[in-house]
Automatic annotation (TrEMBL):
GO molecular function, one term: metal ion binding
Organism listed in the record: Cirrhinus mrigala
Keywords noted in UniProt: Magnesium, Membrane, Metal-binding, Signal, Transmembrane, Transmembrane helix
Secretion signal, residue range per the UniProt entry: 1-25
Protein name as it appears in the record: Cation-transporting P-type ATPase C-terminal domain-containing protein
InterPro entries: ATPase_P-typ_cation-transptr_C (IPR006068), ATPase_P-typ_TM_dom_sf (IPR023298)
Bilayer-crossing regions: 45-70
Length: 71
């Protein structure tokens, strides 16, 4: 039996997402961000640097999880 009902979980999710979006929305843009040219339509959504970062984090987390599980 779940300690939180579905409606309570939705309410907590709504509140947490609201605070997170407010934190991001109130951050002022930097001057360099305002002056740079927009990306083209054919550019990939995830850049090569972002993909390396994502894969690096995934490998790191899997290493830690497997170490904790099997060590």
């Amino acid at each position: 039996d779940s300690p939180l009902k579905a409606v309570q979980m939705l309410w907590v999710n709504l509140i947490m997402d609201t605070f997170a979006s407010l934190a991001l929305a109130t951050e002022p843009p930097t001057e360099s961000l305002l002056l740079r040219k927009p990306y083209g339509r054919n550019k990939p959504l995830i850049s090569r640097t972002m993909m390396k970062n994502i894969l690096g984090h995934a490998v790191y987390q899997l290493t830690i999880i497997f170490t904790l599980l099997f060590a």
